[in-house]
Design goal:
The protein is 50% helix and 23% strand. With 278 residues, it is of the alpha+beta class. Strands 1, 2, 3, 4, 5, 6 and 7 form a seven-stranded antiparallel β-sheet that branches. The two termini are 39 Å apart. Helix 6 packs across helix 10. The chain has three domains: 2-72; 87-120, no CATH class; 129-277, 3-Layer(aba) Sandwich (Chemotaxis protein chec). It has twelve helices and seven strands. The longest helix is centred in the C-terminal third of the chain and has 23 residues, at 206-228. The chain has helices at residues 2-12, 18-21, 30-39, 45-59, 63-71, 74-81, 87-101, 105-115, 117-120, 129-146, 186-197, 206-228; strands at residues 151-153, 157-174, 177-184, 234-236, 240-260, 263-271, 275-277.
Length: 278
């Protein structure tokens, strides 16, 4: 899995050609992959290490993150790119709150001492972080099993406003309120719809949207079924799609870029949040 991620970086930065890595992109061992690149005279040893350092820096990856990616285990890979219950995630949420409210460090500390984090930033500190992590992990596992094992995640970003060319999404409501969306450029969504259909589709029409809607519905259905064993019950609303609009939310949504095969799309996650599309 390491080779899949690193080769994607090398290709996007035009450091190698597709033909250079076609027969080695499935290697999971970092040493083996870098060694094969050197054998092919694509990247010399020192150059490969420099590229690896640049890759880690660009995506904010530690050696531990590289080990998680190399494992091929989605439960280990997902937290590298999107997470909710770590100390870093909580600090990130508090920083977002302070930025939005304009409070000084002294005012933040006073409120923290007076009422506690959960009281004064309820929209920024996640209500059920473990469940959110679990949901994303399951969703990404199903993407890999239903479409392609060649799935590459990139660092998620938080936002309250997401402008899109095309968006297909579905909500789950019950113990929690969850929105899962797939968004992207027309040609990218069309390519994914084609993968799901098993054939090329001519345009991003109703049939193409329905393919992606069925895909989202299946992911959400599988996730809801698995979560129901833990006393979490949610019903699926009908999927819907929009073009050239903006998705907004009362608190943070998460945009997770995902490369499936050679196509990059965004997975949008909203948890226990009020959303609107205009």
């Amino acid at each position: 899995m390491f080779a899949l991620y690193f080769s994607r970086y090398l290709l996007e930065n035009k450091l190698v050609k597709q033909t250079d890595i076609d027969d080695i992109a499935d290697l999971s061992c970092r040493t083996s992959f870098l060694g094969k690149l050197a054998e092919k005279n694509c990247l010399a040893g020192d150059e490969a290490e420099r590229c690896l350092s640049a890759f880690k820096k660009e995506h904010g990856l530690t050696d531990g993150c590289i080990e998680a990616i190399s494992s091929g285990d989605m439960e280990k890979i997902v937290p590298v790119f999107i997470y909710f219950d770590t100390e870093e995630a909580i600090e990130r949420d508090i920083t977002a709150f302070q930025k939005d409210t304009g409070l000084t460090d002294a005012e933040m500390e006073a409120r923290k001492q007076d009422k506690g984090i959960g009281w004064f930033v309820p929209d920024y500190v996640q209500a059920d972080a473990a469940l959110y992590n679990n949901f994303v992990q399951m969703a990404m596992k199903h993407v890999a099993s239903l479409v392609s094992a060649k799935v590459v995640l990139k660092k998620a970003r938080q936002t309250r406003e997401y402008a899109f060319a095309h968006l297909v999404c579905q909500e789950l409501k019950g113990t929690h309120r969850v929105l899962l969306g797939i968004a992207g450029k027309e040609e990218n969504l069309l390519a994914v719809a084609g993968m799901l259909a098993g054939k090329d589709l001519p345009e991003m029409d109703k049939a193409a949207h329905e393919r992606i809607s069925e895909f989202i519905n299946r992911i959400n259905g599988l996730c809801a079924s698995a979560l129901s064993t833990g006393e979490v019950f949610m019903k699926l609303a009908l999927p819907y799609w929009y073009s050239h609009k903006t998705l907004t939310a009362n608190s943070e949504m998460y945009c997770l870029p995902v490369v499936i095969g050679d196509v990059e799309i965004d997975f949008i996650f909203s948890f226990d949040n009020e959303v609107d599309i205009q």
